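Reviewer comment 2.1 asked that we show a complete input and output for one of the modelled complexes. We chose the 2-oxoglutaric acid case, as it is the one discussed in the main text.
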Amino acid sequence: MSISTATEGIRFAVPPAFQIHRQVLAKDGVAGIRDYVTRVLGNRPPPAEGEADRNWSVQFRTLMVQGHLKNPGELVGVLRQSEVPALCREILGPGLVYSIDKSLLRDFNPRLRSAPATMHFDAHVFGPHIPIVTVWVPLNPVGVDAPGLAIATRPHWPLDYWNELAGRVDDAGLLYRRIDPGRAGIPQDEIYALARAEDEWPLVEPVLDVGDVMIFDHQYIHGTQPGIANPGRRMSMEVRVMPYAMAQRLLAAGLPQMFASLD
Ligand SMILES: O=C(O)CCC(=O)C(=O)O
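Response of the prediction step:
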């Protein structure tokens, strides 16, 4: 595939958000989620010899089905009691929900050979036409010793990969036919090679502490931060937020998923 990276000429009704907010979450609340992740993911079996660990994330919905989680508010309450809903309202407007199916917890453990998330747009989850942000919450410090995220500072970059997502929306302009999840990810080295060819380096690897959140629009490509020499274990939570009215339309069109209120 030939890659073009120009983003000039793209007009945004609302500029896609890319924000870091420091010390907005209660540290004891974050520690509670970290203990929870340790309980639900910490004892997973190691992968088979020579295999990578691909079971280092779990969706809220799966936890509910397994009986580990009665109410996703047990996890998202830490965000709801912070300024995060107001920050999301500034971006998306009033009346917000989060996805129970597509919000998740992660336990990246190099000892188990956890496979880094390759680069992707979160737009491949619901489709590029849906207004949505990811609230990414580190549960331990990331960016120096433990891998956080590598994320592009330019929406729709690389453009050809973004364009691949467009055109997969149904005729009613609502439901999105997902790219095969196995193909939705793009190897980090390919993205870093493209970045090297750019005049302005388009990737950042934010250093985040417990209590910080990163909020980014699904139009930014990102993946697990590569390149840390002896990476430490990292736990995190990612919550995908969209307008209630949008979720209602998706549900009415038959999307078999669950949402809960962020407000
Ligand atoms: O936590 C990671 O390493 C990947 C996170 C991710 O892919 C996401 O937030 O969509």
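Residues 18-42+54-261 form a domain with the Jelly Rolls fold (CATH 2.60.120.620). We note this here for comparison with the apo prediction described in Section 3.2.
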